[in-house]
From TrEMBL:
The lineage of its organism: unclassified sequences, metagenomes, ecological metagenomes. This is Uncharacterized protein.
Amino acid sequence: MENQFYDQQYLKLCSIADKEGRAFARTALEYFADRESLQMFLNSLFYNHSIMESDQFAVYLGLMYEFIGQEMPDDMDCYIVMDQESNIFFSYFLTTLLRTILNQAGGDHPCPAM
């Protein structure tokens, strides 16, 4: 019974992260006119995710939303604050973000790691 609850929570978490990662990627692609700026933006996101605690990264991600002229979506903001699995959320969000950017860029990889 407890596993079913966890599975449902995990699926909800992944669904929100996927939806918001895709939306954030589309906005970032529109905001950054050149690949170099987009690459620097992505590098800062991934670097800061690797060195910050989850609560610090949540604040940083909120600032990055503001930087590109958006507000962090309510469902995402609320879920990050209330959930204990924010590391999973951020990893899934960033994976979706990068995958969406790579797919939209048509194979022209903006990240040197790719």
